[in-house]
From TrEMBL:
Signal peptide: none annotated. Gene3D superfamilies: TolB, C-terminal domain. InterPro entries: 6-blade_b-propeller_TolB-like, WD40. This is WD40 repeat protein. Belongs to the TolB family.
């Protein structure tokens, strides 16, 4: 079921400048809980989901959302990405599958394959050349365990490739700007359930990127490869829940230095998917403040 706002809560879409830290409000709503902004490759639009649907709004802001016709795709969640040419949006639907939707209109195409019962696809990344999607495959087992691993699949459809194969909790798989790595968050370095850190993997090489007491999710490398933006939850947080105080938006540079950009009330839906501007100077996110 799509998420809804709590009484007195707002959804606020912001753009933040990573050089100055200036934050600009693009859209605020007390009616629709929207999530997970993508930034269009032409720099003009932000795309968000809400109520199982997909919308866009000019980066400059406005009061009205323009709904994107999904062509009969089942209700979607907050895992969606845009093709590098800006012509296609790939979405994760509540039926567990991935779909390609032409933004100019037309029939959608299912990308994902039928796998074992209880398998769901959660999309997070697309390669810089647009040829391959990176997703999290979630397998719900009869004994109640939920196994998540990093997978890839051709954007045109085809055979899946499994990147990780273990029982560590993985999420947020996304390609690096040069296409050589897949960034993701994982609990594989922790003995504490729910305590995720950031990693990247290329072939048989695995590197841990963060090593702190906070719970770190959803790494998004800037298009120029200079820094990685991510969502950081307070110590002890389990997973990536909604409506958490002290959620921080951070930047990680190539020398492993961390810079705080913003602190907000949010979490789930704040920045689940790639949301960088094409020129790597800004990114978009969503906060969910409650009335005091």
């Amino acid at each position: 079921m799509p998420r809804t706002l709590r009484p007195g809560q707002r959804a606020e879409l912001f753009v933040i400048d990573i050089g100055t830290g200036e934050q600009r409000l693009v859209l605020s709503s007390t009616e629709l809980l929207f999530e997970a902004p993508n930034w269009s490759p032409d720099g003009d639009w932000l795309i968000i989901n809400g109520d199982g649907r997909l919308f866009r709004i000019p980066v400059a802001g406005g009061t009205e959302l323009e709904e994107i016709d999904l062509g009969g795709v089942p209700a979607i969640n907050n895992d969606h990405v845009l093709s590098p040419d800006g012509l296609t949006v790939y979405v994760s639907a509540e039926d567990g599958h991935l779909y390609a939707v032409p933004l100019a209109g037309g029939a959608p195409r299912r990308v994902s394959n039928d796998r074992v019962q209880g398998f769901h696809h959660y999309l997070h990344g697309i390669s810089p050349d647009g040829s391959t999607l990176a997703y999290i495959g979630l397998q719900a087992l009869p004994d109640g365990r939920r196994i998540t691993n990093v997978w890839t699949i051709p954007a045109a459809g085809g055979s899946d490739s499994q990147v990780t194969d273990d029982e560590y909790a993985d999420d947020g798989s996304e390609y690096s700007a040069d296409g050589k790595w897949i960034y993701f968050n994982s609990e594989r370095a922790s003995s504490v359930p729910g305590h995720a850190q950031l990693f990247r993997i290329s072939g048989g090489t695995l590197e841990q990127l963060t090593h702190d007491e906070r719970v770190n999710w959803f790494p998004h490398q800037a298009p120029d490869g200079s820094v990685v933006a991510y969502v950081s939850f307070p110590p002890g947080t389990l997973g990536h829940p909604a409506d958490v105080e002290d959620v921080r938006l951070r930047l990680l540079d190539a020398d492993s230095r961390i810079r705080e950009l913003a602190t907000l009330f949010g979490g789930q839906g704040t920045m689940n998917v790639p949301s960088w501007s094409p020129d790597s100077t800004r990114f978009a996110y969503v906060a969910y403040p409650l009335a005091h």
